[in-house]
Amino acid sequence: MPVLQKKMFTFPKTILLSIGVLGFIYSNSVIAGVTTTETEKYLVIATGTKVSFDMSNVELGADQEVLSTGSPGTGEHNAAFNGAPNTAGVFLNKATSWKTHTGPPTDSATYGQPNYLPGSRPLFEGIDYSGNVAITGSTGEYKASNVDLYANRGVDCTQSAGSCFDSGNDGNARYFQDSGDLDNSGVGLSNGTTNTDLTTSGTGLLDELADIRDWLIALDSDVTWTNNSQEMKDLYSGAITTDGIVFTDLDALDTNNDGYAVIDLNFTGSNDFFHLNNTDWILKSDLGTQAIFRLADGSHFKFIDSSIMLGDSQGNTRPINELGAIFFTDTYTTENTVFDLQNVILGGIGLWDFTDFNPRPSNHLQTEVASSYAAFDNRTKTNISNAQGCAQFIGNSINMSNNRWNRCSETPSTPRVDIPEPSIVWLFALSLLIFWRKNIE
Questions:
Q1: Would you give the DSSP letter of residue 242?
Q2: H/E element holding 260?
């Protein structure tokens, strides 16, 4: 069971760098002080009542063309998924950002040759069966039209399968549990839906989510960004650096060296939201530092024509399959839509709306009362249109149209690289410790 534990000692940066590089190879970052065993199983966790997850023209547990051209590419397995996001049309027309592997940017993409953002780790292209969904409300439902779900569990629902699938007709929604199903058209999505107890007496997912919120809101802040901070000005303008890409050094932001760069977002006035527009943003870390962007004051997040990816200075080419950043909110104020995404690519990003776990949901990051779960109908919304990548979504009501997603979570579910033998890993770690001790004696 993965348990998040804070670092007990502060090592020199040179040692931390070596350990961080090793960590990228051998494992992943996890949240200190709480377990994520159940949470990390799911690509989508919808916590509201009635229709809490609505998907149309969506591929989950697979991202079979990076970047997507608006229709299934030659060689893709496709059953019900007749539509697709057209991210290639948006991002490959930018002369300074996303690239093809065959030459300069064009308005087309080639299946089997993933496009990439210079300076970032690549997205995985293919099927990894990571598209598990949890519908947690006691009367929660989901809708699906033209959907291919590739998942080793499918949809875990508090209600029965018949009550959980809203449309009652899943002729254009198909479920594929493993590679053996690719030889046929899979099964109807309702057949991939299972009545599951997600409470304390069952899997414990809801308790785990409450614990995660308690931990997140108790974290010490490393830095605060406001409407007028230089970091936000850089993001708003799409300014800086190489090829017009904005880089943020997470290691530099982690002022207490605990492995987390906690950025509190304090937005007030007429522009009381986090806005990313026409920007390619790389969150960079050589130490495995995870970013946590907490909405401490303000209404919502809005990403348009933008990408957020992970990178490092080592030129790591391992496809992203773990969370490197979490965008977190636990309130609803004047804005019901807390995440609004249009034409977006995400690599290693969690969009977490924990409003249903906040006993005082009009107060940001309140710590006076412990987290507890209460489901509501259409309380807050996450709207995602024309988007793809590797991410994790938690929220009251989640709506997707023309999407492709693999799951990124605290623990990668599907290793995509060879793992070193443990003996080699621990010998290397021991040698680093000995080197450090000799240098301080």
A1: G
A2: strand 260-266
CA distances from 69 to 49, 55, 396, 409 (A): 34, 19, 30, 26
Residue 131 token pair: 């598209």
Give the CA radius of gyration of the chain.
21
Strands in 99-220 per DSSP E: 126-127, 133-135, 140-150, 155-157, 173-176, 187-188, 193-195
**DSSP β-ladder status, 381-395 and 44-46:** parallel
DSSP H/E element including 13: helix 13-26
Residue 353 or residue 317, greater confidence: 353
Angle, CA 213 vertex, CA 207 and CA 215 arms, to 5°? 105
Q: Which residues have C-beta within 8 Å of that of residue 441, sequence separation ≥ 6?
A: none
* Run of H or E including 277: strand 273-277
Which residue shows structure tokens 């000799």? 438
pLDDT-wise least confident of 48-57, 212-221, 404-413: 404-413
Which residue is it, tokens 């309380």?
Answer: 379
- Tokens of residue 195, six digits: 């009545």
Query: What's the confidence (pLDDT) of residue 364?
Result: 94
Instruction: Single out the residue of 56, 59, 91 nearest to residue 72, CA to CA.
Output: 59
Tokens 């950002």 locate to 97
Taking CA atoms, 259 is separated from 3, 19, 319, 358, in Å, by 14, 12, 21, 25
Query: Cβ–Cβ contacts within 10 Å for residue 438, how many?
Result: 8
Strands 62-63 and 126-127: antiparallel
Mean pLDDT of 74-83: 85
| Residues paired with residue 116 on neighbouring β-strands, in sequence order | 99
pLDDT tens-digit readout, 384-398: 999 999 999 999 999
